[in-house]
């Protein structure tokens, strides 16, 4: 929640031993595995072995990033209902115990408003973030959306430095040029 409510999810390198993923899964973290094109130079066997390992040891639910972000919350049962701590500005959850409150790990820098399935929720600023009125249990999943109270504003860190643009362009040239270099080297060997 450190950058204007933008959801943060860790990524894990495909090149690391697959056993490192077991601890992350035990903690309940989403497993987003990334790599670069060089990982596929010998084919897709590396990716299929990671998937097979996870299926055998973790039994994950394979899904898209949007579903992961929508499930980026914690729930604590209280006598008044579920107290929900959100780590994204849009979450979908079951309210089979009713809703006692919604909070963030740290209060937003600017006032926020919350909606439950499109209907405005009354909010009070508290030390733990945002609190809502009590809602009764419901059968269908609910969507909670948090937004800036005064509309979206650009974040003060939104400007990008020239150095970061140059670094990004160099990275693109490297990544896009590497397959061409490999192909040229390979064709030079076949001519000899």
Tell me about this structure.
Helices cover 30% and strands 25% of the residues. With 192 residues, it is α+β, with helices and mostly antiparallel strands. The protein has two domains: 11-62, no CATH class; 63-179, no CATH class. Strands 5-11-7-8 form a four-stranded antiparallel sheet, with no helix packed on it. The longest helix has 30 residues, at 162-191. The chain is flat, with a radius of gyration of 23 Å.
Order of helices and strands: EHEHHEEEEEEEEEH
The main sheet orders its strands as: 5-11-7-8
Strand content: 25-35%
Q: What structural class should be given to the helix and strand makeup? A: alpha+beta
Helix content: 25-40%
Low-confidence stretches: none
What is the 3D shape?
flat
End-to-end separation = 57 Å
Alpha carbon gyration radius: 23 Å
Query: In the residues, how many domains can be counted?
Result: 2
Total number of helical segments? 4
User: Could you tell me the mean pLDDT?
Assistant: 77
What about the largest sheet? Answer: 4 strands, antiparallel
According to DSSP, the number of beta strands is: 11
